[in-house]
């Protein structure tokens, strides 16, 4: 990577599971480099959703390296996730036709309720996990399938952990790490933020910041996809013998089933 920038630059790994991200700095400038980032990054940069894209270069081996502006800042904490800026930026993303058009060109696939349910069914069957909670959860998903459809899908980030929300020193909010982005129901993203970060009594206010009113249909869809995620998380961690993480997903699954039963969703 060093030969791309020249002798006056130092490049170090920025960490992460893929090992494809780097921090580069010289006496005058700092950059965030990433190998083989999605072309989706250019549209995200143009809309101010991620830090500015500075340049893109193709290496001799065919890899593509992107350089983004490095901004001093911090990840949001759990409490800061309740700020209206989070709801408004997520709404901007979900309502962007440019993002949708670009991701459809790249991915050409959409997350549908049918495919999601099929994935969960195969996951449970292939791992031979027999628990009453999983059985009840799957039967609930199956029974609600006809009521989950929507007319218009959007770009969903699908990994809205608070560490992926970055607040720069000048107060600009960014949403980074788009490797898991998919086209699907916005309830997938909304549900994760509400369930993980927003007190239940504040859900209506948060949704108002986002730009929608609460409704039974939204709650049905939101919980349906949260149950999907909880099952996948439980089975994956159980399979990899991560008992603590598996237990956490199982507890979340129990909570979600309690909510849908008590709210008649």
Automatic annotation (TrEMBL):
GO terms assigned for molecular function: ATP binding; protein kinase activity
Ranges of residues in domain Protein kinase: 7-265
Lineage top rank: taxon: Bacteria
Protein name per Swiss-Prot or TrEMBL: DUF1679 domain-containing protein
